[in-house]
Give the backbone structure.
Amino acid sequence: MRRYVLSRLGVAVVLLVAVTMVIFAILRLAPGGPLDAYAPPSAPLTHAARLALSKALGLNHPLPIQYLDWVWQAVHGNLGLSAAEDFVPVSTLIATHVGPTLALMGTGVAIGIVLGVGFGVLSAQYQYGVTDFGLTLFGFLGLAMPAFLAGLLGLYVFSIQLGWFPSGGDQTPGQPATVGQFLYHLILPALILSFNQIAGFMRYTRSALLEVRHEDYVLTATAKGASTFRVVMRHELPNALLPVVTMVGASIPNLIGGAVFLETIFDWPGMGQLFVTAVVARDYATIMGMTLVVAIVVLVGNLVTDVAYSAIDPRIRYAK
Protein backbone atom coordinates (compact mmCIF):
# COMPACT_ATOMS: atom_id res chain seq x y z
CA MET A 1 0.00 0.00 0.00
CA ARG A 2 2.81 2.44 0.85
CA ARG A 3 4.43 1.94 -2.53
CA TYR A 4 1.12 2.45 -4.31
CA VAL A 5 0.36 5.66 -2.36
CA LEU A 6 3.83 7.07 -3.07
CA SER A 7 3.50 6.36 -6.78
CA ARG A 8 0.10 8.06 -6.95
CA LEU A 9 1.46 10.99 -4.94
CA GLY A 10 4.34 11.36 -7.39
CA VAL A 11 1.93 11.45 -10.32
CA ALA A 12 -0.16 14.09 -8.52
CA VAL A 13 2.88 16.32 -7.97
CA VAL A 14 3.89 16.08 -11.65
CA LEU A 15 0.34 16.95 -12.73
CA LEU A 16 0.26 19.90 -10.32
CA VAL A 17 3.47 21.31 -11.79
CA ALA A 18 2.19 20.79 -15.33
CA VAL A 19 -1.14 22.51 -14.62
CA THR A 20 0.46 25.54 -13.00
CA MET A 21 3.01 25.85 -15.82
CA VAL A 22 0.32 25.79 -18.50
CA ILE A 23 -1.94 28.32 -16.72
CA PHE A 24 1.02 30.58 -15.94
CA ALA A 25 2.14 30.55 -19.58
CA ILE A 26 -1.39 31.18 -20.91
CA LEU A 27 -1.90 34.16 -18.60
CA ARG A 28 1.46 35.66 -19.49
CA LEU A 29 1.00 35.17 -23.23
CA ALA A 30 -2.57 36.52 -23.30
CA PRO A 31 -3.16 40.02 -24.74
CA GLY A 32 -2.27 42.72 -22.26
CA GLY A 33 -0.40 41.73 -19.15
CA PRO A 34 -0.35 41.74 -15.34
CA LEU A 35 0.46 45.44 -15.27
CA ASP A 36 -2.91 46.31 -16.82
CA ALA A 37 -4.67 45.30 -13.60
CA TYR A 38 -2.65 47.89 -11.65
CA ALA A 39 -3.37 50.76 -14.04
CA PRO A 40 -7.00 51.92 -14.50
CA PRO A 41 -7.92 53.10 -18.02
CA SER A 42 -8.64 56.58 -16.65
CA ALA A 43 -5.07 56.96 -15.35
CA PRO A 44 -2.68 54.95 -17.51
CA LEU A 45 0.89 54.48 -16.33
CA THR A 46 3.70 56.35 -17.94
CA HIS A 47 6.47 54.41 -19.63
CA ALA A 48 8.85 55.05 -16.74
CA ALA A 49 6.23 54.00 -14.19
CA ARG A 50 5.51 50.79 -16.11
CA LEU A 51 9.22 49.93 -16.18
CA ALA A 52 9.56 50.58 -12.46
CA LEU A 53 6.48 48.54 -11.58
CA SER A 54 7.55 45.73 -13.92
CA LYS A 55 10.91 45.58 -12.17
CA ALA A 56 9.30 45.64 -8.72
CA LEU A 57 7.00 42.73 -9.64
CA GLY A 58 9.78 40.75 -11.34
CA LEU A 59 8.09 40.93 -14.72
CA ASN A 60 11.30 42.07 -16.43
CA HIS A 61 12.75 38.56 -16.14
CA PRO A 62 12.30 35.75 -18.72
CA LEU A 63 9.11 33.72 -18.41
CA PRO A 64 10.78 30.59 -16.88
CA ILE A 65 12.42 32.75 -14.19
CA GLN A 66 9.08 34.40 -13.42
CA TYR A 67 7.45 30.98 -13.03
CA LEU A 68 10.19 29.69 -10.73
CA ASP A 69 9.94 32.85 -8.65
CA TRP A 70 6.17 32.40 -8.36
CA VAL A 71 6.63 28.76 -7.30
CA TRP A 72 9.22 29.78 -4.68
CA GLN A 73 6.90 32.42 -3.26
CA ALA A 74 3.90 30.04 -3.34
CA VAL A 75 5.80 27.34 -1.45
CA HIS A 76 6.43 29.94 1.28
CA GLY A 77 2.76 30.90 1.40
CA ASN A 78 3.00 34.10 -0.62
CA LEU A 79 0.57 34.08 -3.56
CA GLY A 80 0.93 37.77 -4.30
CA LEU A 81 -1.37 40.76 -3.87
CA SER A 82 -4.80 41.14 -5.45
CA ALA A 83 -4.98 44.14 -7.74
CA ALA A 84 -8.78 43.95 -7.83
CA GLU A 85 -9.23 43.86 -4.04
CA ASP A 86 -7.11 46.82 -2.87
CA PHE A 87 -3.87 44.81 -2.77
CA VAL A 88 -5.12 42.36 -0.15
CA PRO A 89 -2.92 39.20 -0.03
CA VAL A 90 -4.36 36.53 -2.30
CA SER A 91 -3.91 33.91 0.44
CA THR A 92 -6.14 36.01 2.72
CA LEU A 93 -8.81 36.32 0.04
CA ILE A 94 -8.81 32.58 -0.60
CA ALA A 95 -8.95 31.81 3.13
CA THR A 96 -12.05 34.00 3.56
CA HIS A 97 -13.85 32.54 0.52
CA VAL A 98 -12.92 28.85 0.63
CA GLY A 99 -15.21 28.01 3.57
CA PRO A 100 -18.54 28.79 1.85
CA THR A 101 -17.40 26.99 -1.30
CA LEU A 102 -16.39 23.85 0.61
CA ALA A 103 -19.73 23.93 2.45
CA LEU A 104 -21.60 24.21 -0.85
CA MET A 105 -19.59 21.47 -2.56
CA GLY A 106 -19.60 19.16 0.45
CA THR A 107 -23.36 19.46 0.92
CA GLY A 108 -23.95 18.99 -2.79
CA VAL A 109 -21.88 15.81 -3.06
CA ALA A 110 -23.37 14.42 0.18
CA ILE A 111 -26.90 14.91 -1.16
CA GLY A 112 -25.80 13.45 -4.49
CA ILE A 113 -24.41 10.30 -2.89
CA VAL A 114 -27.36 9.67 -0.56
CA LEU A 115 -30.13 10.34 -3.07
CA GLY A 116 -28.19 9.00 -6.05
CA VAL A 117 -27.43 5.65 -4.44
CA GLY A 118 -30.97 5.43 -3.06
CA PHE A 119 -32.56 6.16 -6.43
CA GLY A 120 -30.14 3.73 -8.09
CA VAL A 121 -31.26 0.95 -5.77
CA LEU A 122 -34.92 1.70 -6.51
CA SER A 123 -34.27 1.86 -10.26
CA ALA A 124 -32.46 -1.48 -10.28
CA GLN A 125 -35.02 -3.12 -8.00
CA TYR A 126 -37.88 -2.17 -10.31
CA GLN A 127 -36.02 -2.65 -13.60
CA TYR A 128 -38.11 -1.74 -16.67
CA GLY A 129 -40.98 -0.66 -14.45
CA VAL A 130 -42.64 2.74 -14.13
CA THR A 131 -40.27 3.70 -11.30
CA ASP A 132 -37.24 2.72 -13.36
CA PHE A 133 -38.38 4.70 -16.41
CA GLY A 134 -39.24 7.74 -14.32
CA LEU A 135 -35.88 7.74 -12.55
CA THR A 136 -34.07 7.11 -15.84
CA LEU A 137 -35.77 10.17 -17.34
CA PHE A 138 -34.76 12.15 -14.25
CA GLY A 139 -31.18 10.91 -14.68
CA PHE A 140 -30.99 11.92 -18.32
CA LEU A 141 -32.33 15.36 -17.43
CA GLY A 142 -29.83 15.77 -14.60
CA LEU A 143 -26.88 14.75 -16.77
CA ALA A 144 -27.93 16.92 -19.72
CA MET A 145 -28.86 20.15 -17.94
CA PRO A 146 -25.93 22.53 -17.34
CA ALA A 147 -25.46 24.04 -13.88
CA PHE A 148 -26.20 27.63 -14.93
CA LEU A 149 -29.55 26.65 -16.48
CA ALA A 150 -30.54 24.56 -13.46
CA GLY A 151 -29.54 27.46 -11.21
CA LEU A 152 -31.61 30.00 -13.11
CA LEU A 153 -34.65 27.70 -13.20
CA GLY A 154 -34.31 26.85 -9.51
CA LEU A 155 -33.95 30.52 -8.57
CA TYR A 156 -37.01 31.49 -10.61
CA VAL A 157 -39.28 28.68 -9.40
CA PHE A 158 -38.34 28.17 -5.74
CA SER A 159 -37.24 31.69 -4.80
CA ILE A 160 -39.19 34.11 -6.99
CA GLN A 161 -42.41 32.21 -7.70
CA LEU A 162 -42.85 30.00 -4.62
CA GLY A 163 -40.77 32.00 -2.14
CA TRP A 164 -39.58 28.89 -0.34
CA PHE A 165 -35.91 29.88 -0.26
CA PRO A 166 -33.94 33.15 -0.30
CA SER A 167 -32.69 34.38 -3.65
CA GLY A 168 -29.05 34.91 -2.72
CA GLY A 169 -26.34 35.50 -0.18
CA ASP A 170 -25.46 33.42 2.86
CA GLN A 171 -27.37 35.51 5.43
CA THR A 172 -30.61 37.50 5.46
CA PRO A 173 -29.94 41.27 5.52
CA GLY A 174 -31.05 42.92 8.74
CA GLN A 175 -31.06 39.68 10.73
CA PRO A 176 -28.36 38.26 13.01
CA ALA A 177 -25.84 36.00 11.28
CA THR A 178 -26.57 32.48 12.56
CA VAL A 179 -25.85 28.92 11.53
CA GLY A 180 -29.54 28.42 10.84
CA GLN A 181 -29.58 31.36 8.44
CA PHE A 182 -26.48 30.02 6.70
CA LEU A 183 -28.05 26.57 6.25
CA TYR A 184 -31.33 28.07 5.06
CA HIS A 185 -29.49 29.98 2.34
CA LEU A 186 -27.35 26.93 1.54
CA ILE A 187 -30.19 24.47 0.84
CA LEU A 188 -31.30 25.64 -2.60
CA PRO A 189 -27.88 26.11 -4.28
CA ALA A 190 -26.67 22.83 -2.74
CA LEU A 191 -29.71 20.95 -4.06
CA ILE A 192 -29.21 22.42 -7.53
CA LEU A 193 -25.49 21.60 -7.43
CA SER A 194 -26.35 18.03 -6.44
CA PHE A 195 -28.78 17.62 -9.38
CA ASN A 196 -26.07 16.39 -11.73
CA GLN A 197 -24.43 14.35 -8.95
CA ILE A 198 -27.67 12.56 -8.10
CA ALA A 199 -28.15 11.58 -11.74
CA GLY A 200 -24.58 10.33 -12.10
CA PHE A 201 -24.50 8.31 -8.88
CA MET A 202 -27.92 6.86 -9.68
CA ARG A 203 -26.86 5.61 -13.11
CA TYR A 204 -23.62 4.11 -11.78
CA THR A 205 -25.40 2.41 -8.87
CA ARG A 206 -28.14 0.99 -11.08
CA SER A 207 -25.67 -0.44 -13.61
CA ALA A 208 -23.44 -1.90 -10.91
CA LEU A 209 -26.36 -3.54 -9.09
CA LEU A 210 -27.64 -5.13 -12.28
CA GLU A 211 -24.16 -6.52 -12.95
CA VAL A 212 -23.78 -8.23 -9.56
CA ARG A 213 -27.38 -9.43 -9.34
CA HIS A 214 -26.62 -12.73 -11.07
CA GLU A 215 -23.40 -13.48 -9.19
CA ASP A 216 -23.22 -16.78 -7.30
CA TYR A 217 -23.12 -15.20 -3.83
CA VAL A 218 -26.31 -13.24 -4.56
CA LEU A 219 -28.12 -16.27 -5.96
CA THR A 220 -26.99 -18.34 -2.95
CA ALA A 221 -28.29 -15.76 -0.48
CA THR A 222 -31.61 -15.65 -2.30
CA ALA A 223 -31.83 -19.45 -2.37
CA LYS A 224 -31.29 -19.55 1.40
CA GLY A 225 -34.44 -17.50 1.87
CA ALA A 226 -32.89 -14.12 2.68
CA SER A 227 -35.27 -11.21 2.27
CA THR A 228 -34.96 -8.91 -0.71
CA PHE A 229 -33.88 -6.03 1.53
CA ARG A 230 -31.15 -8.13 3.13
CA VAL A 231 -29.88 -9.41 -0.21
CA VAL A 232 -29.66 -5.91 -1.62
CA MET A 233 -28.10 -4.24 1.43
CA ARG A 234 -25.78 -7.03 2.58
CA HIS A 235 -24.72 -8.67 -0.67
CA GLU A 236 -25.45 -6.56 -3.75
CA LEU A 237 -24.89 -2.97 -2.64
CA PRO A 238 -21.46 -3.30 -0.91
CA ASN A 239 -19.97 -4.88 -4.04
CA ALA A 240 -21.79 -2.51 -6.39
CA LEU A 241 -20.45 0.61 -4.64
CA LEU A 242 -16.90 0.19 -5.94
CA PRO A 243 -17.55 2.18 -9.15
CA VAL A 244 -19.38 4.80 -7.08
CA VAL A 245 -16.23 5.37 -5.00
CA THR A 246 -14.33 6.17 -8.20
CA MET A 247 -17.00 8.61 -9.30
CA VAL A 248 -16.62 10.67 -6.09
CA GLY A 249 -13.15 11.77 -7.15
CA ALA A 250 -14.15 12.21 -10.78
CA SER A 251 -17.05 14.48 -9.80
CA ILE A 252 -14.85 17.11 -8.10
CA PRO A 253 -14.08 19.08 -11.31
CA ASN A 254 -17.80 19.16 -12.16
CA LEU A 255 -18.59 20.34 -8.64
CA ILE A 256 -16.06 23.17 -8.94
CA GLY A 257 -17.38 24.21 -12.36
CA GLY A 258 -20.96 24.11 -11.13
CA ALA A 259 -20.06 26.08 -8.00
CA VAL A 260 -18.59 28.90 -10.11
CA PHE A 261 -21.92 29.40 -11.92
CA LEU A 262 -24.16 28.89 -8.90
CA GLU A 263 -22.16 31.21 -6.64
CA THR A 264 -22.54 33.94 -9.26
CA ILE A 265 -26.27 33.29 -9.68
CA PHE A 266 -27.01 33.09 -5.95
CA ASP A 267 -24.46 35.73 -4.89
CA TRP A 268 -22.81 33.08 -2.72
CA PRO A 269 -19.61 34.51 -1.14
CA GLY A 270 -17.31 31.70 -2.22
CA MET A 271 -14.32 31.12 -4.46
CA GLY A 272 -16.44 30.94 -7.60
CA GLN A 273 -17.58 34.52 -7.21
CA LEU A 274 -14.02 35.56 -6.36
CA PHE A 275 -12.73 33.83 -9.48
CA VAL A 276 -15.23 35.60 -11.75
CA THR A 277 -14.28 38.95 -10.22
CA ALA A 278 -10.58 38.20 -10.76
CA VAL A 279 -11.10 37.23 -14.40
CA VAL A 280 -13.13 40.36 -15.17
CA ALA A 281 -10.50 42.56 -13.48
CA ARG A 282 -7.60 40.60 -15.05
CA ASP A 283 -6.22 40.02 -11.57
CA TYR A 284 -3.41 37.62 -12.52
CA ALA A 285 -2.19 36.99 -8.97
CA THR A 286 -5.64 35.93 -7.76
CA ILE A 287 -6.25 33.77 -10.83
CA MET A 288 -2.95 31.93 -10.35
CA GLY A 289 -3.51 31.51 -6.62
CA MET A 290 -6.99 30.10 -7.11
CA THR A 291 -5.78 27.84 -9.93
CA LEU A 292 -3.20 26.40 -7.55
CA VAL A 293 -5.79 25.79 -4.83
CA VAL A 294 -8.32 24.23 -7.23
CA ALA A 295 -5.65 21.99 -8.75
CA ILE A 296 -4.57 20.82 -5.30
CA VAL A 297 -8.19 20.09 -4.30
CA VAL A 298 -8.84 18.08 -7.48
CA LEU A 299 -5.59 16.11 -7.22
CA VAL A 300 -6.02 15.40 -3.51
CA GLY A 301 -9.60 14.27 -4.14
CA ASN A 302 -8.47 11.89 -6.86
CA LEU A 303 -5.57 10.66 -4.70
CA VAL A 304 -7.92 9.92 -1.79
CA THR A 305 -10.29 8.16 -4.20
CA ASP A 306 -7.47 6.00 -5.60
CA VAL A 307 -6.28 5.06 -2.12
CA ALA A 308 -9.82 4.28 -0.95
CA TYR A 309 -10.47 2.17 -4.02
CA SER A 310 -7.22 0.24 -3.57
CA ALA A 311 -8.05 -0.33 0.11
CA ILE A 312 -11.45 -1.75 -0.83
CA ASP A 313 -10.13 -3.80 -3.75
CA PRO A 314 -6.44 -4.81 -3.22
CA ARG A 315 -6.22 -6.04 -6.82
CA ILE A 316 -5.93 -2.41 -7.94
CA ARG A 317 -2.62 -1.73 -6.20
CA TYR A 318 -1.17 -5.14 -7.07
CA ALA A 319 -1.86 -4.50 -10.74
CA LYS A 320 0.22 -1.29 -10.78
